[in-house]
Design the sequence.
């Protein structure tokens, strides 16, 4: 490429070597493009096969009474898992009631009030570390601080375990959502004589809300499918729950229990519960992706 | 540095409109620092009431920094400090009894990039009233019409007050920001390069507006556009490297500057 100066004006004049190099570049380009397409398609395989498998095995038992009846006793036919659906919803609800306020308010503090303070840095680091904690550890933690104290398995113990699991997701996505709010909006608000609190409530939060909701739905979707934290805390129950302070059924623990017994009907029912759970989680994810996406 | 008195005799077309006190805002021995870096050096100037004062100078010369001190917006940045004094009608704006919130309601600001909130046109204009707790519908309605008329935007948007402000054109957005700033009925309007992101036609409209607004407000405008300074300001201050080099009637600055540096800048020899 020494003579680039003399050739630079003559764009289309190329020698033999240059032509073969161009050909190899073009082939290389095409090969990499195809490789990327193939690998992208490969990522669809696990999801699609899970959906097909769950539909194929879960659909036969799917009916209305599955949502309204209690699980059958060992070896018996019929029944449903209404108590497990309600249990999952209740425990995810408790977790949300704990994790959402804590997560969002912490995110507001570390992004709006003291972004470069030592406390903010620590909270951010701890939240990131917490995302990597295995979910079973959350269960053991809730077992230690709730179940051992109270002396019984309960829905709120399950809720605490799931809250610990959800907190870092909600906090980190909320912080990102707040970072995404244009600083020009904050400036305009301060310039008009607004206090920091007014600026957050009237300008920053409304703009960040869709992204915060997305984070919450993703956390809900993840928590709803967790088994390990609930085995230690809510355990399981064959009956409708009368209060939050008794062992409570959940879809994930029901799947775990029924898939390990030697009765074909129970195994079928585990498949149907999987179908309901996958549908629930997928719905939460789709809501997170679409309903709360930014309008502008 | 030329003094005010030196040019009092100078009769220029731009300086005909003369009302209110000459030291409405007064800056005394003002120094400003971003951390250890000094951005402004010993600034002394008096800004007259109900006139348009333009700040010109190359990028980084400190003109925006000074502007943002008048409503203490710089305090939002960590690690800044100042020495010296800025007074509004004889009272220090840095006094402990001055509430920064109240100061910003008295000294409104329009930013370089128009920044309407992602809310309706109506809600943008009444923002200042809402945050001061005003909820009376008739009062808010009056404020919207008065402010939008004041910003020469009423006729263009009166039928879509409740649509998003983000659907407006760039020029309309900037005039909406002006309407939002004057809704507070401030005394002073700070404008930080308000036309730099606008096309020529929108710029003309905003400049016409600035000339009209000075009947009611004291206006300080930072601009990179020297034609703009000549078109709409009464007085011009030229800043260079954090120092106030020359401050005089606009006509004088652009026709017969006292300082060599000013002449070099306005004739395009640097900057």
Sequence:
């Amino acid at each position: 490429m020494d003579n680039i100066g003399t050739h630079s004006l003559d764009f289309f004049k190329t020698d033999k070597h240059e032509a073969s190099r161009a050909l190899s570049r073009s082939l290389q380009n095409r090969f990499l493009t195809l490789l990327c397409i193939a690998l992208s398609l490969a990522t669809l395989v696990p999801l699609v096969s899970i959906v097909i498998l769950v539909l194929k095995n879960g659909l036969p038992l799917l009916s209305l009474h599955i949502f309204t009846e209690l699980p059958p006793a060992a070896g018996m036919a019929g029944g449903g898992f209404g108590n497990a659906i309600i249990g999952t919803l209740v425990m995810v609800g408790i977790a949300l009631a704990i994790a959402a306020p804590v997560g969002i308010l912490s995110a507001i503090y570390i992004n709006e009030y003291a972004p470069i303070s030592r406390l903010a840095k620590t909270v951010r680091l701890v939240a990131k570390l917490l995302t990597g904690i295995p979910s079973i550890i959350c269960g053991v933690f809730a077992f230690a601080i709730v179940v051992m104290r109270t002396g019984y398995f309960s829905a709120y113990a399950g809720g605490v375990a799931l809250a610990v699991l959800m907190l870092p997701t909600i906090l980190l996505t909320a912080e990102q959502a707040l970072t995404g709010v244009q600083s020009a909006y904050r400036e305009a608000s301060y310039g008009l004589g607004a206090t920091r609190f007014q600026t957050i409530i009237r300008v920053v939060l409304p703009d960040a809300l869709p992204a915060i909701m997305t984070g919450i739905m993703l956390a809900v979707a993840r928590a709803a499918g967790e088994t390990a934290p609930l085995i230690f805390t809510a355990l399981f129950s064959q009956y409708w729950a009368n209060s939050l302070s008794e062992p409570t059924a959940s879809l994930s623990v029901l799947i775990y229990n029924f898939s390990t017994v030697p009765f074909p009907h129970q195994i079928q029912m585990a498949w149907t519960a999987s179908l309901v759970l996958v549908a629930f989680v997928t719905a939460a994810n789709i809501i997170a992706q679409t309903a709360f996406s930014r309008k502008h | 540095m030329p003094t005010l008195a030196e040019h009092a005799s100078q009769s220029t077309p731009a300086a005909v409109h003369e009302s209110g006190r000459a030291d409405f805002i007064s800056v005394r021995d003002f120094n400003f620092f971003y951390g250890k870096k000094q951005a402004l050096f010993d600034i002394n100037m008096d800004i007259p009431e109900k006139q348009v004062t333009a700040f010109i100078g190359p990028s980084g010369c400190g003109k925006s920094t000074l502007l943002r001190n008048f409503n203490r917006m710089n305090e939002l940045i960590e690690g800044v400090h100042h020495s010296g004094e800025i007074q509004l009608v004889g009272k220090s704006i840095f006094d402990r009894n001055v509430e920064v919130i109240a100061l910003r309601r008295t000294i409104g600001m329009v930013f370089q990039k128009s920044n309407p909130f992602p809310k309706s046109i109506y809600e943008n204009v009444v923002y200042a009233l809402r945050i001061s707790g005003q909820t009376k519908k008739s009062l808010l309605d009056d404020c919207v019409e008065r402010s939008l008329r004041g910003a020469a935007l009423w006729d263009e948007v009166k039928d879509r007050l409740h649509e998003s402000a983000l659907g407006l054109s760039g020029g309309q957005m900037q005039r909406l920001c002006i309407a939002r700033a004057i809704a507070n009925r401030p005394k002073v309007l700070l404008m930080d390069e308000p036309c730099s992101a606008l096309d020529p036609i929108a710029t003309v409209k905003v400049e016409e507006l600035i000339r009209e607004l000075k009947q009611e407000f004291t206006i300080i405008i930072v601009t990179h556009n020297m034609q703009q300074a000549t078109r709409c300001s009464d007085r011009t201050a030229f800043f260079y490297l954090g120092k106030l080099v020359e401050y005089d009637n606009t006509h004088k600055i652009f026709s017969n500057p006292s300082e060599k540096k000013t002449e070099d800048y306005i004739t395009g020899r640097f900057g």
Remarks:
- Confidence is low (pLDDT under 50) at residues 1-17 of chain B.
